[in-house]
Design a protein that fits this description.
about 140 residues; Substrate Binding Domain Of Dnak, Chain:A, Domain 2; single chain; mainly alpha; elongated
Length: about 140
């Protein structure tokens, strides 16, 4: 077995540095490409990936709404934040269990899409509830 020479190793290092130094730019470009790809998704893998991104987006919106609601209820009473925290933890358990129904043996490669869509819908509904709470229930 022949080991690579110093010249080959230097060239390899230069190539790796060049490749990794362009990653941040590639990441931003990849995100735009991924968003555009969801508009034209056709394969099950593409649809699954897009449904995962949609759920992640819904989850981010939920986290923002939860923080806003926590900021509002802290002024209501000393127990209000703990009540909301407890309710949110219970809701997370409900969300996860409710969407498990889509994980059945016959569902096959569409299973991730079914679960992600369930998670997205339930999460969006909860986000709306938290936004209403943060707006002071219309008061």
């Amino acid at each position: 077995m022949t080991l690579p020479g110093k010249k080959t190793m230097r060239l390899l290092k230069v190539a790796l540095i060049a490749a990794f130094s362009s990653l941040p730019l590639a990441g931003a470009s990849a995100q735009q490409t991924a968003e555009n790809a969801c508009e034209n998704a056709q394969t099950q893998l593409e649809l699954n990936e897009c449904s995962a991104r949609a759920y992640q987006s819904a989850d981010s919106a939920l986290n923002e709404a939860y923080k806003a609601a926590m900021d509002v209820v802290k002024d209501w009473s000393p127990e209000s934040q703990e009540k909301l925290r407890s309710a949110q933890r219970s809701w997370i358990g409900y969300r996860d269990k409710a969407c498990l129904v889509y994980q059945y043996p016959e569902s096959g490669s569409i299973t991730p899409l079914l679960i992600n869509d369930c998670l997205r819908k339930i999460t969006t509904d909860r986000t709306d509830d938290l936004k209403a709470l943060a707006q002071g229930l219309g008061n």
